[in-house]
Amino acid sequence: MSLKELVGQTTILTVARKAEFGFFLTDGNEDVLLHKNEAHREIEEGEQIEVFLYVDSEGRPTASTVIPEIAVGRYAWVKVTDVKPDIGVFLNIGLQKDILLGKDDLPAHKSVWPKEGDMVFITLRVNRNYLLYAKLASDQVIQSISTKATRESFNKNVQGYIYRTAKVGSWIFTLEGFKGFIHESQRNQEPRLGEKVEGRVIDIKEDGTINVSLLARKQESQDVDAARIYEYLMSRNGAMPYTDKSMPEDIMERFGLSKAAFKRALGKLIKEGRVYQEGGWTYEKKDS
């Protein structure tokens, strides 16, 4: 087997000789360069060392003593380091050279592409020119590493990374190792591939997978909505032409809330004695 056929994998090679810019390693038939920037420990001629093989910018096999968590057929979570809208995103696997996850392997809508700092679960693939690229894990691979959830997880908060996106929803792999689905109705906006999100478990399936909601719990949501309404009221010097009798479309246009959510939040402010309604208007209730 030629060294090119081992690109994207680890192998044991012998240090044949030292050069000005690194070391030449050999398998007995071929030599490969271990550049001094990729030699992360003391190396002696004649010793056998484990290295990871990849191809340099000129198409030549090259070695590194850094052994990435991932290899061809081996998966790991890696961090996004850069986004190039024309070609894809670059990932740090521990080498001097970042690996490309090409745009053809990313969502059609760039709005849900990963951003710098996001995490994706990938393996490596090698093209016909022996160049290394990232490949996203399939649903089956995620299933194979997942842990089955039990009823004890119901209504618990979970955090995890989005590993697949679609119009109908998003798929999440949680820090506990649960494989989950977020229906489009259970999110205010579509999360990015690789984005870390927090939600709560709203269902546990027979196969141990979970359904997750990213929407705030009703009480938390009500608090946020009430704060938004009160902030708007105060920006108008304590008076606004909106009450629980206002038209749903007017409420949606001004506050981005359904009428039901608006009424709940406004009712909370009234109950707390912070506002009152009169003549089709809502007013700040000042201390007398």
Automatic annotation (TrEMBL):
Signal sequence annotation: none
Q: Which SMART domains match?
A: S1
S1 motif domain residues are: 155-215
Q: What organism does this protein naturally occur in?
A: Neobacillus kokaensis
Q: Pfam family of this protein, just one?
A: S1_2
Identify the Gene3D superfamilies for this entry.
Answer: Nucleic acid-binding proteins, Winged helix-like DNA-binding domain superfamily/Winged helix DNA-binding domain
| Classification via PANTHER family | CONSERVED VIRULENCE FACTOR B
Could you tell me what this protein is called? S1 motif domain-containing protein
User: Can you tell me which family this protein belongs to?
Assistant: Belongs to the CvfB family.
